[in-house]
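Service request form, structural biology core

Requester: graduate student, group of Dr. S.
Request type: structure prediction, single chain
Budget code: on file
Notes: please return the result as structure tokens.

Sequence provided:
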Amino acid sequence: MHSPLRLYGRSDELAALEALSARLRAGDGGALVLTAPPGLGRTALLRQAAAHHLAGRAGPVLSACAAPAERRLPWSGLHALLCSAPGPLPLAPDTVLRSGITPGGLLALLRTLGAEQPLLVCVDDAHLWDPDSRAALGFAARRLGAGSRVAAVLGAADETAFAGLPTLRLGPLDEDAATALLDRLTGPAAEVDPVVRAELLREAAGNPRLLAGLTGRLTPDQLAGRTALPYPLPGGESVLDAHAAHLDGLSAETHTLLLLAAAAEEHEPDGTGSDAALLLRAGARAGLSAAHLDRVLFAPADSAGALQRAGSRVHFSHPLLRRAVLHRAPPGRRRAVHDLLAGLLGGPGRTPLPALVQRACAAPGPDAALAGQLERAADAPRPHGERAAALARAAALSADDSLRAARFTAAAEQARLAGDTGRARALLARVGPHPAGGAAPRVRGMLALRDGPAADAHAALLAAAELLAPHDPRRTLDALFGAAEAAWHMGDALAYLDAMHRIPVAAADRPTAQYRAGMCAVLAGHPDRGHALLRCCLDSADRAEDAGLLLRTGAAALVLGEVEAACRAGARALAVVRTRGPEALLPHALEQLAYAELRSGQHARARAHALEGLHAARRTGQRNSAAHLHAVLALAASVEGPAEACAAHADAALAGAGPHGLAQAATLATWAVARADLAAGRPGQAAARLGPLVRPGPGTGHFATRMLAVPCYVEAVALSGRAGQAADALAVAVEEFALWTARTTDPQVPAQLARCRALLAPPEEAAARYEEALAHHDRAGGDFERARTRLLQGQLLRRLRRTREARGPLRDALVAFERCSARVWAARAGGELRAAGEAVDGPERSGPGPLAVLTPQQQRIARCVAEGATNREVAVRLSVSPRTVDHHLRNVFAALGVRSRTELARLLDRGGGAGLRDRDERNRADL
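Core staff response, request fulfilled:
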């Protein structure tokens, strides 16, 4: 094991300390109070500040750490601080201890010391100083300003002791910082099981001292997952003792109530606190007066701020405080409190589970009878979180190793269904490395499916299915469907087929068997038979109430291209998950519904559902689902804008898709960015992004979604003027798209195929192709795709100098884009319409700005150039010749009084001047 050599996740705090140090070196002063609960790094930061000051030879340091045993001794704090001076002082520390010092006297003393060299004062746990010393130090610290040459850095539990001073509150380490610290603690050569790593990070909750303590007490075999983790994890005693010390001054009655509150949370879901009514009854049964109960429960000051009330619930102000209270209580007293609560929670007509959990907490050792009662109670229709808690308690009471492992596995499954990924992994860590049967590997695989590498999930679930097949058909079916879903996310059609072929037909109901056979037939190259089976699946599932079956029905509808049916199935699946659970399926249900709504052109509704799904994915720890939802949001933003939102969501999707091998999310995110490029008039960039996605063969886009991007690819290549260079690739893409059109029932696809052929046809043939596309749009409906066809039709007419005829299609496109909130596309259509000679309201309309003196066409060229486009790129974007761009640009320069493209960019205040200088040389010949 290694001690950390640097501070992790404290860049903001270190920057604040450096800023204070810089002021001190410049001859000024100041103060900063670092506040945090125990273990978050206050002491390390104070040591860092002192070491930095001494290493730079800036001046002396006075430092002290409060001794709680001396807090009732007047002036003991300042005595300890002054004793740390490197040399003699004008006022002896012993004199201060005997006679004290006025606050003004302390301020004068510090300024005298700082007059010689800049002085740094560091006090840790200053809130535990005696009141006299604390008051004098606070007085002096508030008056360390310009010219004082003294800085004070104080560490305290909270800001109340030093009100009025600049305060920086330390929070828990984020996941990246905690992971980096854990890697340092275990060393580069250590083998750390991912489940054990997740449990250590969860248990430490961002507390670096606690993480170090927990990690240091585990054996190499426990770290590697070869031996089950102990419960509770050892190593956190010092942090819990430090939290408990915060409560030392409270009365015995208050300590009793705190213990009751801590124990009462044991049968509640994590983070929900305890029931205030139960605490009042328990307190009365324990002999506490009603007046005392009211004071502590309704006045936080009476519990030193440890308890907080929110409506009918009572919470601890910090999770570790609750654990500290239970840790500090003697075992006999703790068991007595649990027995008391069990008696209050039990009785006729009451749900047995809470009382059983409390009885389990009171048990001194294994209890087979009580464990069996808990397991039977967990079979009742209760929330998954409560069932997980009951099964975990049953496992802890089980003496038999195999029975304990089975119960911990069942508890992990319930925690997973409750959406508590961290808790599920923690319970799996207590199962051991090689449990009998395939239940534990199945839970591991299902967790990885939503929050891990898809290849790992696929392998784990296939292995689990083999182990489960002889004795558990239902879970075997779930494991194989999970393995198939993982293969789908990976974009591996053969692996998907392999998993689906392993599903035993006898174990599936009729709609499930039809779904399996239909998907296998489609991917095996028998679309007609596959589509017929999938339609039977849709018909069979009309009255289904199972969320999993409804989600598979929605997937079947999407494969068929029946997007409205997919929306209906997705909406029903979401309703079932909301009302019946499980919570773990909520992100997936929202993702599938949002994707179906995107396919049907309901972009605003898709965005709303995808945002809700993203919040649910983050709440339940499902990073894979979050990546897919970011991709959906990127696609929605490529229609509605802004471009920054599309780029941000696409980046987030790709950041999650890369490490976990999510080919579908990566394909959708790349398509979204390319479509945003098209909307902004950057067809060359769009073509470069889409080319690798639509090519057939390995290393391309996802097999189920790459066809959707073909219309954008054809448009991008055609508008970029590269259709001749990419003729072969275009022909292959359009031919494959035509074959797919014949197989799908998506109503928009025939219109998109006709539009692709219009883009590649000679002008005399293109008009008829566009009319064919519009006829398909009239039958299919949908504003967005029809508007795109009208926009391209208008651009063609304008390029053919049929400007008056172009205005009608362009006007239709603008209105349709505005109607479906496609703002970026509306701006593009408005620009085309202005170029065709029709005035259009909008952000590009001539106004009092610098472009007011230009014609509409000159304004469009100026804006394109200011964005960094070359003359040839502007010509392609605006459907004019490079010579026309050159002519207009000369007039723009003359009218605006600028001499370069960089000056033009600055004039338009686009902020991109620096990035355009390299283009000046390339375009000098054009001018």
